[in-house]
Amino acid sequence: MHVPPTVHPDRSGLDEGLLEAVAAGAARLTPQQGLEIHERMPLETLGFWADRRCRTLHGDSIRTYVIDRNINYTNVCTAKCTFCAFRRDGDEADAYVLDRETLLGKIEELVAIGGTQILMQGGMHPDLPLPWYLELLEAIGERFPQVHVHAFSPPEFIEFVNFFDPPGDTLEQKIRSVMEPLRKAGLDSVPGGGGEIFAPAVRRKIGLGKCTAEAWLTVMRVAHELGMNTSATMMFGHIEGIADRVHHMEMVRQWQDRDLADFARDGGGSCKAFISWPFQRENTPLGRVPDWGFGEGDDPDAPFPGDVVATLDGTGVKESHPLFGRRVRMAGSSAYLRTQALSRLYLDNVWSIGSSWVTMGPHVGQVGLRYGANDMGSVMMEENVVSSAGTTFCLNEPTLCRLIRDAGFLPAQRNNEYDVIRVHDGPESPDLRVEDWSTLRAQRLHQQSEGETPATSGAAETTVPLTVSDRD
Ligand code: SF4
């Protein structure tokens, strides 16, 4: 029986005794304490406590990564998220749907380098029928039974419900009607893409045509009921307030509690990982919104509009500030580390925190291992969505292992279940075999792909034979 840790709402979030108990897993932060920590705790202190909590869960020695491949089977999408540079309408010249042989060929390349899973997501394409997905999953299972299929984020499932009109009286039943056959056809787990920020005021502004938070969480609940694991994500550093970030974590935690209580005893799945990353602005409509303090009439000393609107219970309304949604507050390295560290302390019922270094750069990602993250994400062979929006770094496996080792840990390859497959503690470790590091420096993916169509996965593939990403 899942029993959440005790809360102590009378105590300050900065109380050392409380933080000791949180680090040990014996106490839980309230939303107010989470907000207080984010706003008032020195960054280094926050890192210290997040690291303590991480070590309680994951020990002192090993930090992990996974080898997988991100396959974006289509860039055609019914939604128009303002932060997205990847989507296309179906009639645009560079709109694509990968044919099955191309897709299977990509998996073959993954298997050849020791990869264990694919992360497969769209675009939400209105014209692909359910049999297209079922036959694809079956074909993958037949050719590559050893490959874990981590696919179709909650917004895709909600669009599947809209496109296919499956039987059911409630959204939950309709999702189950779609998810069960996909599961039988070979779907292994559901990635947490499309989380963004759950608070409705923010979500309505940035995720045009994308599902609500409740629908997102309902998809994951059904996945857990059917025995599949999932992950959760948060994209921050745009129009949202800090309280929105805490509210987002609170929603993940609440639903995880409920699903663990309802399904864990019967072999149900759970949310295994939380990954957060800052918004990347290049080539996106939202990226053209002025930074706070640089718009006409801005008073940079006044509170950021997102903070005026945000509430810890997610009920903030856009009318609370006339500039809400019309100014952004981008997150730099310290804001990133602060939010990630808080997520480690706050999400006491989520096993893994991923360091999202793809957008921040390898060395910030490396430091993230001291700010509550136990996992460096994925070594994988292409990345299209984030690279369309600008800064995306890529690394090969030796460099990734070296970053983990230089942070003071043993690098270890894991699978999708977060089981360690191999610990790199000997001279044959990928990083310890390298003699000339000059050929293995981290590079920016979008610079490598310069001049090529960023949304076309084949283009990224020809220039980036082995890259790392954290879109989980
Ligand atoms: S972020 Fe995803 S759902 Fe939103 S427009 Fe882009 S591809 Fe579509």
Short account of what is shown:
By secondary structure, the protein is of the alpha/beta class. It has 18 helices and 17 strands. The protein has one domain: Alpha-Beta Barrel (TIM Barrel), CATH 3.20.20.
Name the descriptors.
single chain, 472 residues, alpha/beta, TIM Barrel, 7-stranded mixed sheet, 4-stranded parallel sheet, binds iron/sulfur cluster
What does this structure look like?
This protein is of the alpha/beta class and 472 residues long. The protein has one domain: Alpha-Beta Barrel (TIM Barrel), CATH 3.20.20.70. The chain is 39% helix and 15% strand. It has 18 helices and 17 strands. It has helices at residues 16-24, 31-40, 43-58, 100-112, 130-143, 154-164, 171-185, 200-206, 213-225, 242-263, 305-309, 333-346, 357-360, 362-368, 385-388, 397-406, 445-448, 457-463, and strands at residues 6-7, 27-28, 62-72, 80-81, 117-121, 148-151, 189-190, 207-208, 229-236, 271-278, 352-354, 375-380, 393-394, 410-414, 420-423, 443-444, 467-469. The strands form five sheets. Strands 3, 5, 6, 12, 14, 15 and 17 form a seven-stranded mixed sheet that branches. A four-stranded parallel sheet has the order 7-9-10-11. α1 links the parallel β1 (6-7) and β2 (27-28). Mean pLDDT is 90; it is low at 445-472. Iron/sulfur cluster (SF4) binds next to β4.
